[in-house]
Design goal:
Layout (H helix, E strand, L loop, with lengths): L5 H4 L4 H26 L2 H12 L2 E2 L2 H6 L4 E17 L2 E8 L11 E4 L4 H4 L5 E7 L2 E7 L2 E4 L4 H37 L12 H21 L2 H24 L16
Parallel strand pairs: 1-2
Antiparallel strand pairs: 2-3, 2-5, 3-4, 5-6, 6-7
Helix pairs in contact: 2-6, 3-6, 6-7, 6-8, 7-8
């Protein structure tokens, strides 16, 4: 087996490696600061989630106010019902004939492939379930569809975004450690393994893993339990992945220079 030289294994100018070290460290600090932003409103979203899950049907006076912590049912007549583009997705948009109380006066965006997309036609009576200023569900002819973006979905997704930032910051600090290590080894003439590029698919994993954990936890648990389980499930993925990242700059066993200590 041929013995690889230090030049074959990798070489880098110490000054350039130190500059990379500082850049990665600063990026890690910036990512940590950014990751705090989606985490700050989590307690408020948890309070909203608890209030939403504990809400009961409104009485007469509460229904009139419209912003009380109770669930209202608003009846209206569909003036239009059509499939439209919303961003890159297609939704089934229903508009109710005015006047109807808020938030039912806003367009209702239903699943383009849901049952209601086949049932609701202009002129049909539609029931909209609302809480505070949130559209919760739409019903027609005994068929109901829950709308996305409910208060019980937001806390875990914010936690997932926070974890995505934290994980990216950890990997930036790992890159800073690797750059500093390469600078030290290059300055003393010792070999080192080339850095493994952090490609696009790995970047997708950093973002997708915490968001997938948040989505799953939001389906199974409520409130703080869901947030804690989001962190737990993410850690089960992130910990081994981060340990693997730490080995990106390990010494290859075949590399050995006579007279140079390890």
């Amino acid at each position: 087996m041929a013995v690889r030289t230090a030049k074959q294994v990798g070489s880098v100018r110490p000054g350039k490696a130190r500059l990379r070290t500082v850049a990665w460290a600063l990026l890690g600090l910036a990512l940590l600061a950014l990751s705090a932003a989606p985490g700050i409103p989590v307690p408020e979203r948890i309070a909203d989630e608890k209030a939403f899950l504990a809400a009961r049907p409104c009485g007469g006076e509460e229904a009139a106010r419209g912003t009380a912590d109770c669930v209202r049912t608003i009846r209206g007549t569909a003036v239009s019902a059509e499939h439209v583009k919303r961003g890159k997705a297609t939704v089934f948009r229903v508009r109710l004939r005015a006047p109807v109380p808020a938030p039912a006066d806003r367009p209702l965006h239903l699943d383009s492939y849901g049952e209601l997309s086949e049932l609701i036609k202009p002129g049909d009576e539609v029931e909209v379930t609302t809480w505070r200023n949130v559209q919760v569900a739409v019903s027609h002819d005994g068929i109901s569809e829950t709308l996305p973006g409910l208060p019980d979905e937001k806390a875990t997704m914010l936690a997932g975004l926070t974890l995505a930032g934290v994980w990216a910051a950890i990997l930036a600090f790992i890159a800073a450690f690797g750059s500093a290590r390469r600078a030290r080894r290059s300055a003393t003439g010792r070999p080192f393994a080339p850095r493994v590029p952090f490609g696009p698919m790995k970047c997708v994993g950093v973002v997708a893993a915490p968001l997938a954990a948040a989505f799953f936890s939001g389906l199974v648990w409520d409130a703080w339990t869901a947030v804690v389980m989001t962190v737990t499930l993410w850690a089960l993925i992130a910990l081994p992945a981060t340990i693997a990242a730490l080995r990106w700059d390990h010494d290859p066993p075949a590399v050995r220079r006579p007279g140079v200590p390890r």
